Structure formats: C-alpha cells, structure tokens
Amino acid sequence: MESISRGVSVNEALSGIFGSISLAAWICLLLPQLITNYKAKSAEGLSMGFLAIWLFGDVANLCGALVTGLAPTATALAGYFCISDLILITQCVYYNVRNARAARKRTQSTDSEASEDEPLLRRRRTSSTGLGLPGSHGRNSLRQHASGLDPIKRSVTGEDETPDSNPWLHNSLSIVAVYVVGAVGWFVSYRAGAWDQPDGDEQSDMDTPVAVVGMVLGYASAICYLCARIPQIIKNYREKSCEGLALLFFLLSLTGNFTYGLSVFTYSQKPDYIIKAIPWLLGSLGTIVEDCIIFYQFRIYAPKREGNSGSANGVNGTNEVAVIA
C-alpha cells in the first residue's frame, strides 16, 4: 500500500499543474471561433487549408497516441481534438456554401432587375463587385456593413473587437481564468487520489516496430501542426485583415501548447523520455512562433475606427455639398 499511496514529487506536481492548464485550454479552444462564426453567420476569416491540415495532424496524433500507448488522458484529448475539428469544419462549410448561394441569388436578382437604359449604373455595379482577392469581398462587405451598425448590433455580429474595446485585455483575463481553473482542477484531482500510482514506471522499448510506427505518426502530426497555420497567415496577409478570426482562439492555442511543453519538460529529463516526446514537443512548441506571427497580424490589420469614421464623414460631407449644389 505504501507504493500505491506515495506522494508526488515537485516535478510531478508541476507537470500535473501545467498539464491540467493545457487540458483546460484545449477543451475551450474552439469555442471562441465557433461563437464568432455563429454570430457573424460567416466563416470567411478562416482558411479551409488551415483547418484541413490541422485535422490531418490531429488524426495522426490520435493514431500515434494509440500506438505508443500514451496516457489515457492524452489519448482522450487527441480524440476530442478530432471531433472538435470536424464540428468546426462542418460549421465553416455550412456557412460558406450558404453565403455563396445567397450571394449568387443576389447577383441574379440584381442582374434581372437592372434596366436596359441604365448601362452606366450596371457597369459601375459589376466593376465594384468584381474586384478583390477571393474571399476579400465578403470580409470587406462585412466591415462596411458593420460601420453603419449601432453598438448593440455591432457586438452581436462580432465587430466589437476593435482597439477601443481593448480585446487584448479582455482575452488576457480569460487566459488567466484558464490558468486558475486548470491549477484548481489539478489540486482537486490530487486530493481525490488520481495521482496515487505505483512507484514502478513502465518503460517502452523504442526499438520495437510498434514504437517506430508511433514515432512516425508523431512526427507526421508535428509536421501537419507546423504547416497548418501557413495558409491562414498567407490569407491574412493577402487580404490585409484578420476579421472573422477569434483572438481568444489563438491565445488559447498558445496557452495549450506552451503549458503542454512545460508539463513534458518538468515531468522528467531522462533522455529516453525526451526522445519519445520529441514529435509532440515539436508540434506544440513549434507552432508558438506561428501563433506570434498571427498575433502580429492582429495588431497591424486591426481596423482603425477613427480613420474610418473620419473618412466616412468626409464622404458624407462631399455628398451633401453635391446635393446642395
């Protein structure tokens, strides 16, 4: 009984706390983006390439966890990732197809209602709607439509994340709450005896075929995770916009990856253990750099309401002068 009811070491406690925080972040990861898409009734901000590659990475991660016999919590979390990815991809496909059909119907109705004796007006309409990169028209129209909304409606459509509302501060408070919930969750599980395990640690042989297959799947998932954000970064750069993206979604991803890496390093520094965890460390810690690039894009592409309102006032002013004249 003494070997079963042993206390945890400092390294195990730190690893458990960081792992619990990472688990809390991953569980809540997709909720902000799902809510943002639902409020805007659009998924224009997300790159489907980003989601597809991420799904492949999660599937490889789940297979690798099953083959290598990782902890049940890690395997369950990998399965949760796959289900969450499918839910988000389904939502995005639904909104993209629905909005594409609605835009096609509006175009057809506009063309049918256009009079033959108004060629200039029709030419102006087609030229104004035909410019821009793929997907940029939807995000630009969202921005133009939101500029005329009242504050309540703007908050419902998700257009309230501007420098005035200080989203970085609000989302940082949410991250602090994740840290608190994760730490409290570990202490509750510790008090409940979840960490009372035998002293003997089972070491898997790294030369077996099963272990080799698990390592290959782990590296495949790491490569997918590292490449997944590249399409999203390129999309943001081309459209010079991060509209439709939930900042908290990427902050939770950063938190989950960072605390996961800390949980691995604090648990054990044995070479065999580190070698076994290298693929998952690459997939988690490597994406932090790409997340920082997306954070920088959030900064430089943030809409400047004062300039937009000033230009809008200027346009309205010139129109009023033209009408009076």
Folded structure, characterized:
With 325 residues, this protein is mainly alpha-helical. It has one domain (10-111, 129-197, 204-318). Helix content is 76%, strand content 0%. It contains twelve helices and no strands. The protein is globular. The model is unreliable at 1-5, 121-138, 144-164 and 307-325 (pLDDT under 50).
* Beta strand %: under 5%
Q: Globular, elongated, flat, extended or rod-shaped: what is the shape?
A: globular
Q: Share of helix among residues?
A: over 70%
Structural class: mainly alpha
Question: Total strand count, please?
Answer: 0
Q: Overall pLDDT, averaged?
A: 75
Question: Using only CA atoms, what is the Rg?
Answer: 25 Å
| Uncertain segments | 1-5, 121-138, 144-164, 307-325
Topology, element by element:
Blueprint: H1 10-27, H2 31-40, H3 48-68, H4 72-113, H5 119-130, H6 136-147, H7 151-156, H8 167-191, H9 209-239, H10 247-267, H11 271-300, H12 305-324
Q: Which descriptors apply to this entry?
A:
325 residues; mainly alpha; 76% helix; disordered C terminus; membrane; transmembrane helix; Uu.00g117600.m01.CDS01; basic amino acid transmembrane transporter activity
